[in-house]
Structures are given as structure tokens and as C-alpha cells.
Write a structure and sequence with these properties.
With 228 residues, the chain is an alpha/beta fold. It is built from 8 helices and 12 strands.
Length: 228
């Protein structure tokens, strides 16, 4: 049974959502504010988190940042009653796996949760075990999901590791955006596309210590991961 940490301060909505998710086969731990959710996350292990954005004591964005510091592998979804574009972009930059605007159908949330968990499990199974790949001056430890160059060591998230592996396996080739999205995100919709843009920006920063490595964007076509 997959475990979900639900952080939702609306008692009526939270109770209904908890019951529906439990009927759908999930085990739910429900926190009524951000501080309570953070303490629960420190003590227990969850397969995925669902965070309301607007909560007392600690908002969902701040909560997500702290959760990422503790365990960057745990996927999370934001729920919000606000339709602001800035909120959605902020959620994407934090690495959210999805962003759902209220009101929504509960079975839509269940479908999205199922899809995210399937992708996460598939990605974990596809990463090579106990293998170190050399990328320019970097070492990419696919088992530890670490990228290192001399004294620099970057702990990667699962999605970052999967994206690096895909780009490396197709290095020095022109890759269409939709091909990358379908391979790594298993979806080429708008949300996934914006999420990929955020991840590509991160990877450019991670590889900046080696000028022979670059991720070049070709307008209206895709990307090329160049390794000299």
C-alpha cells in the first residue's frame, strides 16, 4: 500500500480527500498545517506528498523546500485555489511533479498520483546499478545518483539522474523536445515541457565546471547535449 503525506488545512476538504484516497487504495497521513506535515515527514517514510499551497504556520512552497532538503527523492504535488501563473512557475522550479488547481475531481488526483508513482518506480528500475559514467571531467555515479568533478559533488534527484542518463546516451545528437519528454516524463504536455525547461537549467549549472560540456537549445526543434 502506497503511503501519502497529505498537508491540507481545510478540514472539510481534507477529510473528504483523505477518505477518497483511502478508498482508492492509499494509506493517508493527514497534517492540518505545514509545521505538522514537516514533523511527520521527518519521522516517517512516504511514497508521495500532496501539499496545499496556502496553509497556516508554513505554506506549501516552504514545506516542499524543507522536504527536498531531507529527501529529494520523494515526489510531490501542489494543490491550490489560486490560478496565478507565478505560483505554477514557482512550483515547477521547486521540482513539483504536478500542480492541480481547485476545484478538481478526486479521481483526477488519483490518476495523476498513479501516473507519477509509475514513472518514479520505472525510472528507479531503469537506472544502471553500481556504475560510474565519465562525462567530460565529471563522474556520474548512477548508483549513488551523484555527479562529481574534483571537489564538487552534487547529489541528484531521481529525475535529474534519469535525464542526465538519457542525454548522455544520446550525446552529440539533436534531440526533439517531444522525444525527451516522452522518454523521461512519459508525457509531452505543457506542464511537462515547463518542468523539463527547469531541469535543463539545473543541469547547465551542474556541468558548468567543464567548458567542453554544453546543453544547447535549437529553437523550435530541441536540444543537443554536447560533450567534447
Amino acid at each position: 500500500m502506497k503511503r501519502i503525506l497529505l498537508a491540507e488545512d481545510d478540514l472539510d476538504f481534507g477529510n473528504i480527500l483523505k477518505q477518497y484516497l483511502e478508498i482508492s487504495g492509499y494509506k493517508i497521513t493527514w497534517a492540518k498545517d505545514g509545521n505538522e506535515a514537516l514533523e511527520l515527514f521527518k519521522k516517517e517514510t512516504f511514497n508521495i506528498c500532496v501539499f496545499d499551497v496556502m496553509m497556516p504556520k508554513m505554506d506549501g512552497f516552504t514545506l516542499a523546500e524543507k522536504v527536498i532538503d531531507i529527501n529529494p527523492e520523494t515526489p510531490f504535488i501542489f494543490l491550490t485555489a489560486r490560478k496565478l501563473k507565478e505560483d505554477k512557475i514557482k512550483g515547477l522550479k521547486l521540482g513539483a511533479d504536478d500542480y492541480i488547481v481547485k476545484p478538481f475531481e478526486a479521481d483526477e488526483l488519483v490518476l495523476r498520483l498513479n501516473n507519477i508513482l509509475k514513472r518514479t518506480e520505472k525510472a528507479a528500475s531503469q537506472l544502471p546499478q553500481e556504475d560510474v559514467i565519465t562525462i567530460g571531467n565529471y563522474n556520474f555515479d548512477t548508483n549513488r545518483q551523484e555527479l562529481s568533478c574534483n571537489d564538487y559533488i552534487k547529489q541528484l534527484t531521481q529525475k535529474e539522474a534519469e535525464l542526465i542518463l538519457y542525454l548522455f546516451n544520446h550525446k552529440n545528437q539533436l534531440l526533439k523536445r517531444e522525444d525527451i519528454l516522452k522518454a523521461v516524463w512519459e508525457n509531452d504536455d505543457f506542464f511537462s515541457g515547463r518542468s523539463m525547461d527547469v531541469f535543463i537549467s539545473r543541469l547547465r549549472k551542474y556541468f558548468k565546471l567543464d567548458p567542453s560540456i554544453s546543453i544547447e537549445s535549437i529553437r523550435n526543434v530541441g536540444l543537443e547535449f554536447k560533450v567534447g
